[in-house]
Amino acid sequence: MTMVTEKDINEQIAWAKINTDVLKSMENPRPAYWVTLAVCIAMVACAALAEYIQYTVGMGPSNLNNPHMWDMYIAAFVFWIGMSHSGTLLSAILHLIHADWRKPIYRFAEAMTTFSLMTAGLFPIIHLGRVWNMYWVLPYVSDRGIWPNFRSPLVWDAFAISTYLSASMLFLFVGMIPDLAICRDNTTGWRKKLYTILSLGWIGSDQQWRNFRKIYLLMACFLIPLAVSVHSIVSADFAMSIMPGWHITTFPPYFVAGALYSGCAAIITLFVLLRYFFRFEEYMTLPLMEKTAKLTFAIAMVWTYLNLIEFASVWYGHDIYNKELLIAKATGPYAWIFWTMLFCGSVLPFALAFRKLRRHMPTMFVVSLFLNLGMFFERWMIVAPTLSMSHEPHQWDIMYGSIVEWAIVFGSFGWFGMLFLIFVKVFPSVSMYEVKEMVFHRKQSLGEEDLARMTDHAKPVTQTTGREGT
Amino acid sequence: MSKKRMMGLFGDFEEAHDAIADIRRNEVPGLTVDDVTMTSPIEHPEVEEVLGDRPVHLQKFTLFGAVFGVVFGFIFLAAAQASFLVQPQGGKPVIALPSNIVLIYEMLIFFAVWLTFFAFIFLSGLLKKRSTLYSEKVSLDQVAIIVEVDENVGESVKGLFQKHKVLEIREEAIR
Amino acid sequence: MSLDNILNHWSDYRKGAEEGGHHDYEHRWAMAINLDLCIGCNACSTACYAENNLPVVGKEKFEKGQAMHWMRIERYWDQQELEHPEQGASFLPMMCQQCGAATCEPVCPVAATYHTPDGLNAQVYNRCIGSRYCSNNCPFRVRYFNFYSYYESSWPEPMEQQLNPDISVRDKGVMEKCTFCVQRIRTVKDKAFMEDRPVQDGEVITACAQACPTSAIVFGDTMDEGSMVNKLWKKHQVERGIYQKTQHAKKNADLRGYRIFEELNVDPSVMYLERVREDV
């Protein structure tokens, strides 16, 4: 007797309904949307004011000092880059392993990637002392014959992030072309003009589909090593230094695992929000949430393992500076952040192991927010305690960020929110053509199964229930 | 002989597939599969069985882009590092291969992706002028077959379409 | 940027760590600081402030840790076993160690810090964009960042008259650190060049060495065989490229010379002579 498995998506759904549902989500928004957008813009305005203060007065108002030369900005930078790995994971990695359950949810994840990168890219600029000279990091032919220092991980950052941002944007755009054609065919006015330009004349011919399939696969193949390398390079900002707590070989995989983790948690958050506000229950179904939650749990365990490895290698090693630092992290002034991070990152994911909790949307929303809080604390725990307690005891210090720093970090959330809110109203946040593909293929495989069963058994199909008509 | 373009809209992929199979078997004289284009709302790689093998050249551009990225990347970085000689610091080499490898890797991906993108736009015929034979139903759920035929073959083409339960037929003359 | 330049000088620049990356060092400036003589009076620190146009940041910013003292006196109370432990303060004058294999140099994104043929770690203020990675990577934490435009308030009329014209006043967003009074080195070298003679020992003296009442700080050129600093380095058997600490501890209590954080292999140019302790 086979178990009745709940379906990831209803195969009998009419394609016209898919079009209508998603296009409806882009219609004129309700007041709640405008309020949220206004809040996001207000946060950005606060950040802009704080940055103006920093630009004119100097970096002093951010409470940075000797030894704390990096603080919240770099932590936020790593956090946002980390969050950007969600889209790559869902779009590219799951595409390569033919996990078609990603199809209804990868579009907004990929958008999240692009906007996370656009947010993260602001921080290496904001944290500079002389922001107006930031283009010196880029290699260009100058009449003085000077170039950036290619040995510096910050220059690697510049290369990596610009490559990742442009590749992600291209991937998002290319993946959207058939959807933009659908939008073009079903809208009027300024939207029709916009989609006509953006869909580049897509008609869905077999030549176009053939090339499309190829480019999608190729870009997915490139995006995966790119994402891994980008976050490894960001981890090299720390790993290439000699500071205790930073000079750790496992930083690249640790950062990538943390990135996938926070990305998945953010996907769960947006999943719950989009499903609720746009009534996407048909597409962002409970089995899909379960799969996403299970994936997050698996990554959480990987992250926990890498954390334990780091603690173990420091504890049993001979590097006194590192060991003292680890003890200080766990018992010193920052201990409350350390233990919150461990709780949110390693204990809380076990909520994802319970089927009942996985299917309860409000719980998932709250859990995912705390998971991301844990990850933000983790980024901060990487940056600040090392600077607080490095080699030279005279310079040991305790430091917390000032209101200027907090304003800019909060503003970055507002900036991300603003970009995402604009995205969901201008572009389809569920990939219509991919959902149609998913429905088509599942219907086909269902038909084949029925056919196989009918040829295998003499009796008509009555034992298994729940197949026809849900 | 003047040519015209005909489009038949089908309710689902199966019927369109069978129609093209008929064309492949030369059931309509003067019309071969090479004149057939199929437009659909989703990708159907299985149509290649009946439509014939139409190769995709995209990956060659990707390879070229990747190789270019590596070669250009190395030459550019080495030249920059070699000319900026005031820079060498205590004990570090002038052209640092470990750092360069990281940067060349990024440039490989950068050029491969961008070149693939531009090649895609070119090879898939995206920015070409669209013919008026386009139905919005294709972006919804119908599959269209577009054939380019001589005027006199039009009727047999219509007959073939109707045999496979076509929903709508449109024509346009090619000037 | 010419091909000629590259071809002619390639071998000069492609050198290993022992030779510090340069073919012919003209000088190798170094210091020897006798911690037994240091009384923690801060005269060196004050002289450095005067010589290098360092801004006085005020009590509030100092407490926040945003001070600009290129030379700082660190105080450690490390003799808890004494009857009055507060009397067991050790003073450590700490400034940029001008490391031969500096950790700050490779991480600057715009190459604002590099190694000079004199063996100094140079900071180019004009090139610095303020990413502050160099300071994070310095194990001694001797790099200071201009968090504000101090020149606007640190030298009110007529105090700007005291500024040293040989050296710039830094704007906000720029990293700075001890330069071994490179402006004095430059002046002396120029004079010696014009008079067609080598630089003599004792001609170049840094502000801190000049101000020290107990002559605890000795500055000179280790490539000059007869210089005081070279004699001190040789006497206490401290050598570049070789990790001395453990060897000393085993051999001879008279060999008091050591360099800080030698296990990090950054090759500092400052040798400290350990304080003679009562229990030794």
CATH superfamily of chain A: Formate dehydrogenase/DMSO reductase domain
**Biggest β-sheet strands, sense, barrel of chain C:** 4 strands, mixed
Number of separate strands of chain A: 0
Q: Quick one: which chains have the greatest interface?
A: A-B, 56 and 57 residues
Number of strands of chain C: 10
- Please mark out the parts of chain C with pLDDT under 50 across 5 or more consecutive residues, or reply none: none
Overall, the morphology of chain C is globular
User: From the 3D coordinates, which CATH architecture of chain C would you assign?
Assistant: 2-Layer Sandwich
Distance between the termini of chain C: 58 Å
Order of helices and strands of chain C: HEHHEEEEHEEHHEHHEE
Seen as an oligomer or otherwise, the chain set is heterotrimer
Largest sheet of chain A: none
Radius of gyration of chain C: 20 Å
Average pLDDT of chain A works out at 89
With strands numbered from the N-terminus, the spatial order across the biggest sheet of chain C is 8-1-10-9
Detailed description of the structure:
The complex is a heterotrimer of chains A (470), B (175) and C (280). Chain A is mostly helical. Chain A has 17 helices and no strands. Mean pLDDT of chain A is 89; it is low at 461-470. Chain B has 2 domains: 3-55 and 131-173, ACT domain (Alpha-Beta Plaits), CATH 3.30.70; 58-123, no CATH class. Chain C has 280 residues and is an alpha+beta fold.
Helix-strand blueprint:
The complex is a heterotrimer of chains A (470), B (175) and C (280).
Chain A lengths: L14 H10 L6 H27 L14 H12 L1 H12 L9 H15 L2 H4 L26 H34 L2 H10 L7 H34 L11 H27 L8 H30 L4 H12 L3 H13 L7 H4 L2 H28 L14 H24 L5 H25 L14
Helix pairs in contact in A: 2-16, 3-5, 3-10, 3-15, 4-5, 4-9, 4-10, 5-7, 5-16, 7-8, 7-9, 9-10, 10-11, 10-15, 12-13, 13-15
Chain B lengths: L2 E8 L2 H12 L11 E4 L8 H4 L6 H26 L13 H27 L13 H4 L2 E8 L3 H10 L2 E8 L2
Antiparallel strand pairs in B: 1-3, 1-4, 2-3
Chain C lengths: L2 H11 L15 E6 L8 H9 L7 H6 L7 E6 L11 E6 L18 E3 L5 E3 L9 H5 L6 E2 L29 E2 L5 H13 L12 H5 L5 E5 L6 H8 L9 H7 L5 E2 L11 E4 L7
Compact overview of the structure:
The complex is a heterotrimer of chains A (470), B (175) and C (280). Chain A has 470 residues and is an all-alpha fold.
